[in-house]
């Protein structure tokens, strides 16, 4: 008998994107699946907040964009018949009327170049070409907008000079339009300019985050979760908390709590998609030392989003058609979604998006003070928020405090490619009949692509698993 034809009973831990993708793929191949989820609903770190019900405005409190290069995610959207819902995601700097924080205050993106060049602080600026200085100024502005504080500090002093030196041998004119640099197009064409080191990570990250080729799902990213869950009727058990995992020679014992009752279930195969930040808090046994060390040592950065429901899309009368502003301070980034619903239900926008240590700063405030700090920080560019009756409601999501996540994503910055690859392989390596998936097990941490990539790989591992072969290899 072909080993692949052997039906297996698989228990999947976590009904986020990776758990649902893997469970659906395993079920498609004929295996029996059971998905345990701690929350009342599936979704993981895909979480869409709707104000005022289904007809109201929405804000993505988790995953919110899909790069065009993330082919697995786009293929999944195609298979789920959601392609017609894809829309362009407008990002930072994409709207000339949005704002950019500078040392001299907030400026419109269309008016920022002169001030950015003036603030560049280059020794002997006359030795560089004018277009070199302009390009360096926009790259410095981009790193300030995208990179968390400590990452910016890790680049050390003299960043502007190092960039100018790198750029002075490059013809940057094809990437300039007037006094603006097309940051994404420049970085995409010059990824090898900063070979190795922290600058390379910056180039890769900003090339993605400031890309013109980013997508969103009109109507909410949670449509992806809903479609995935529909493929698993009767398979998802919500409000079920996993308390422990114990790898045994012929099974994995899963300690779980549901409705106040704790049970220990012997499971034939288990796929764990829980973040390691959550997994390391469970009772664990039977897992080898290297794997345990990674589970306990993998770093996760918090991420916090604060959304505001408003009486109207006030930013439209301010000339902003979408995209995002780099506000700086505790707010960091703000994004303006398009109004795709009945405007009588008001409008909503992502008032603050912070990650890493920047999120820790705002998470350190009581919730009411967080909201006040964000609204006060936005007042410098959006005084309309102070108009009576403008703010109708506020929602916040601090992923570092969420017990089902304990972090927005595994840390992807400041690792050389070889170290990242070793950690990824170890994270995805099975331990007996315990398999692993999730963005932390992938080449695309912090993205839906990583969840899909790792889920498909884990489903294949489980499908082809044969205990006698594993015993022979051991």
Automatic annotation (TrEMBL):
InterPro entries: Amino_oxidase, FAD/NAD-bd_sf, Flavin_amine_oxidase, Flavin_monoamine_oxidase. Gene3D superfamilies: FAD/NAD(P)-binding domain. The keyword Membrane does not apply. Its cofactor is FAD. Keywords: Oxidoreductase. The keyword Oxidoreductase applies. Residues 18-462 form the Amine oxidase domain. Transmembrane segments: none annotated. This is Flavin monoamine oxidase family protein.
